[in-house]
Hints:
Strands 5-2-1-6 form a four-stranded antiparallel sheet, sandwiched between helices.
Amino acid sequence: MNVGQLLQQPWQSVQRYLFDHGWQSMDTAPKDQPILGYCMDESEPDEKVHGCLSTYLIHRQELDHVVNGPHVLVWGGEYGGNDPVDGTCFTIPNWWFRYGSAFEEPAAPIAWKPVI
């Protein structure tokens, strides 16, 4: 199956395919070095889960995001500020971003491999 055909499948099918071909679960990805991540935007639900947006969706609201497919990724991008309405402080946690994007392009990786 080529990348074009792979991208036509639901993300869960793509993830199973990747796992069967040597990719690893994101739970095992190192956060102290770049990785090759296979990203699929639709793997993150667009709606709130338990009343909250996912970390990926919070970052994506104000930024571009990577297109589906393989990308070199890094962990980081945490930032904070003050809510303009009530002045309360907030922190948006670290997440996966495209390497070289200065933490401006969040990614939704579903599997990873080491960068060789």
